[in-house]
Amino acid sequence: MQSDVTTKQEKLQEKLHVGIIMDGNGRWATRRGLSRMRGHEAGVEAIRRIVEAAPKQGIGTLTLYAFSTDNWRRPKAEVAALMTLLRFYLANEVASLARNGVRLTVIGRRDRLPDGIAAAIARAEQATADGDVLNLRIAVDYSARDAILNAAAKAAALTSLTREAFSQLVTGEAGLRDVDLIIRTSGEKRLSDFLLWEGAYAELHFTERMWPEFEAADLAEALACFHGRERRFGGLQSLPLEPAPSL
Ligand code: FPP
């Protein structure tokens, strides 16, 4: 028999999956005469606000882009500072995430992270594994193209493959809901190698707000825009979707 926790976690798949490209920390700080690091710290405060707001706004899964495989190209000092912030986040936030029913998983590579971070991630994932209020995924050393490539390498050993099975290889999670909405802050209009497989039919929302100033009300506005869109998934307006022919 399925446990109560498993059933509640499965129910999260009925709620929205939102991905956020948290952009603009550096510009937000520089415009205020602050160090870029201060911008990233303010970015962590924004993460706290949005993680708290998300379940109240109908979000079951929230994927946040914290560090891309290309971010290693930044100056060493900034990379080190971001890794320190991640270390602090994992150490200080886990108790409150667990208390609030947030299940944390980290997606992306772990083998290139500074010493101790992979172990801290594993501890945080274990401590929050029963969370059934929000599935929070943080992308660190992440590249969607690499995730697809790695999945393809694993799939090569299989004799048959479905989209669902391939999705699990890409996302690392069985039955993960496709991304409904991708938000990018700071006015940039790019996907930057984020959720390319899971976001195939995602609606896109771009806002001028810098990530450190992004509030629950901005999330609500993005969701209001999303709910105003007509999602056709390749079908026609107001007609039920016909099944597609099998491959
Ligand atoms: C983009 O701003 C932001 C990042 C590359 C990092 C996002 C990181 C955080 C929000 C904090 C760390 C996260 C965790 C989970 C501890 P940018 O630096 O590219 O800003 P800019 O485009 O204005 O320079």
Main sheet strand line-up = 3-4-2-1-5-6
How much beta, percentage-wise?
Answer: 15-25%
Helical/strand content category? alpha/beta
How many beta strands in the DSSP annotation?
Answer: 6
Low-confidence residue ranges: none
N-to-C series of helices and strands = HEHHEHEHEHHEEH
CATH architecture label: 3-Layer(aba) Sandwich
Q: What's the shape?
A: globular
C-alpha-based Rg, rounded: 18 Å
CATH topology: Undecaprenyl pyrophosphate synthetase
- Percent range of helical residues: 40-55%
Could you state the CATH homologous superfamily? Answer: Decaprenyl diphosphate synthase-like
Distance between the termini: 35 Å
What's the number of domains?
1
CATH class: Alpha Beta
Attached small molecules: farnesyl diphosphate
Largest sheet: 6 strands, parallel
Mean pLDDT: 94
Detailed description of the structure:
With about 250 residues, the chain is an alpha/beta fold. The protein has one domain (about 20-225): Decaprenyl diphosphate synthase-like (Undecaprenyl pyrophosphate synthetase). It has helices spanning about 5-10, 25-30, 35-55, 75-100, 115-125, 145-155, 165-170, 215-230, and strands spanning about 15-20, 60-70, 100-105, 135-140, 180-185, 205. Strand 3 (about 100-105), helix 5 and strand 4 form a beta-alpha-beta unit. Helix 6 packs across helix 7. The radius of gyration is 18 Å and the shape is globular. It binds farnesyl diphosphate. Farnesyl diphosphate binds near residues 26 and 89.
